[in-house]
Amino acid sequence: MTTSTPQQRIEQLRQTLDHHNYRYYVLDDPIIPDADYDKLMRELQSLEVTHPDLITMDSPTQRVGAKPLDGFDAVVHQLAMLSLDNAFDDQELNDFDNRVRERLNAVDTLEYACEPKLDGIAISLIYENGRLVLGATRGDGVNGEDITSNVRTIPSVPLRLQGTDFPEVLEVRGEIYMPKAGFESLNARAREAGEKTFANPRNAAAGSLRQLDPSITKTRPLQLCAYSMGRVEGAELPDRHTDVLRQLNAWGFRINPHMDEVQGIEACMAYYRKLSGLRDSLPYDIDGIVFKVNSRAIQERLGFVARAPRWAIAYKFPAQEQLTELLDVEFQVGRTGAITPVARLKPVEVAGVTVSNATLHNRDEIERLGVKVGDRVMVRRAGDVIPQIVSVVLEQRPETVEEIVFPTRCPVCESPIETIPGEAVARCTGGLVCGAQVKEAIKHFASRKAMDIDGLGDKLVEQLVDAELIDSVEGLYRLSAEQVAKLERMGPKSAENLITALEKSKQTTQERFIYALGIREVGEATARNLVQHFRTLEAIQSADEESLMAVDDVGPVVAHFVAEWFAQSHNQNVVQALREVGVQWQDESELTVESAMPLAGRTFVISGSLEAFSRDEAKDKLQKLGAKVSGSVSKKTDHLVAGPGAGSKLTKAQSLEVDVMDEVALLALLSEYGE
């Protein structure tokens, strides 16, 4: 039996851990459990403590080991890190293509490399003989800062390269960014600690990279995505830019999975439109698309102008942040009595949409921002997220600003406003005597994912309550067509349609009914779990908090809200009244597990567009059959439903050998079980 020396075992452990880091942080495809990885790391740490003379800077144990710095040293880039020219519409992108082809003597079409432009911080990484020796910021393109100690803490930055065919000297250029989920988590922790939050993921990434203490940087969820090489010595590179990126991936670097190569500028525009549609669903922020002539030989012929290459351009998306003025703050009352301050803004276009209102969340957020009426504020809108004020430009604060005064009484019913210890949200104590809460409760009850009452929109609900035709949800089912027809913009035909829709909605499912009741913290998934666990409404109504906590995803807070809601006599009366007017469903206890849940235990992911129904509708149908519908593909996924534009989820599903079905197969499956 052969035995290895400590040095041999240390090197073996380092190579093994480097490989698993590559699988986890670059390929998103781990092959061992975290516990096994931790065991290997502890063994390496123990050996290095015993043999400190064998510790090297490229060891996985040395990602954080440097002392806090007094400041950052200057770095001069031997090969300048140039910026890119920008295009803001199709014409400017066409003009770029025309300039390139004219300079190349009227080439018909060119192959372009297409890459999402990550909204982060440009970085230069220098490797010598495969080992990281320097990490530097872009700075002004010629002079940057040495942030090697901080860069080393980022798990997706390899401390040494994979393989053996790498150059003697390799400069990798990429973007350090913070994923959206990590950004939200970081800000949530800051709010809990009463600390300042970051305005956006880019600012969070920049602030994290410039920490003088690397141990702080290590706690920040940063990622690296490589997008090019700079200085290279001792090796020949592939002829095409996209092949260069694939080579970087083989050496251990994460590259963007949406990278592509296309022929001609029209295909570039199609790529831009496709990624624009995917932008909001990506797990990170992008602010445009970078198009590069893919041939490196042609890149060299084209050269540079001023501080930008002639062979590349960034086609920018509409800005997601803009400056505007806070004109006033109003306070709205939600269906649970939550008082939400809403900022009235001087209208401004953000991400292609005119924004005149933004949420301020709660009193704590107003105090944290230090915002006042009349301030110049930065407004952010990303995708379908409600616009929000993320910062105040104190340098532009006028002398006429006014403090925001939080009300002590409900602006709708004059009931006292209270704040429960431990909660940031203030609430009206009026309950169902508060007109706003009644209106919001009815709107929620009638919504598509609840009772799905066709034609009962928000404005009609407000008319019905204001006209004193209803004052609770069960009152909906006591309406007559004659009463409804007298309302503004409601004729006899519209009134009859509404009464028909109300009658139809009486036939529902138990989980929809429970969700429609509007119990705090009880969403669709929780309602479904309650039904699957207790089977009958009576069992849910009589369950105590301890019994409720036995339900999947129900913790002490949700259990308290459910038990408290059903303990209130007026809520019991509402449920009884709804049953008396004919709201009904097939009791889960009357169904066999097999017939009720034919897809139980199977996990689906839906990606891309569907034609027969929306993705939400497909999700609802699958969940009715007992399936779990997840938002991301993993080894636990059983089926990916892939429509046009499925993108990276399809790629990952294929790599994990997950079953992929198209919409036709999904329809056949649903039809098989009566959906």
UniProtKB/TrEMBL annotation:
Cofactor: Mg(2+); Mn(2+)
UniProt cross-references to Pfam families, sorted A to Z: BRCT (PF00533), DNA_ligase_aden (PF01653), DNA_ligase_ZBD (PF03119), HHH_2 (PF12826), HHH_5 (PF14520), OB_DNA_ligase (PF03120)
Enzyme kind, highest EC tier: ligase
Annotated Zn(2+) binding sites: C410, C413, C434
Catalytic activity reported: NAD(+) + (deoxyribonucleotide)n-3'-hydroxyl + 5'-phospho-(deoxyribonucleotide)m = (deoxyribonucleotide)n+m + AMP + beta-nicotinamide D-nucleotide
GO BP of this protein: DNA repair; DNA replication
Cross-referenced InterPro entries: BRCT_dom, BRCT_dom_sf, DisA/LigA_HHH, DNA_ligase, DNA_ligase_AS, DNA_ligase_CS, DNAligase_adenylation, DNAligase_N
Keywords: DNA damage, DNA repair, DNA replication, Ligase, Magnesium, Manganese, Metal-binding, NAD, Zinc
Positions of the catalytic residues: K117
GO molecular function: DNA binding; DNA ligase (NAD+) activity; metal ion binding
Cellular component per GO, a single term: cytosol
Binding site for NAD(+): D34, A35, D36, Y37, D38, S83, L84, E115, R138, E175, K292, K316
Function: DNA ligase that catalyzes the formation of phosphodiester linkages between 5'-phosphoryl and 3'-hydroxyl groups in double-stranded DNA using NAD as a coenzyme and as the energy source for the reaction. It is essential for DNA replication and repair of damaged DNA.
Sequence similarity: Belongs to the NAD-dependent DNA ligase family. LigA subfamily.
Protein name: DNA ligase
Protein species of origin: Marinibactrum halimedae
Lineage: Bacteria, Pseudomonadati, Pseudomonadota, Gammaproteobacteria, Cellvibrionales
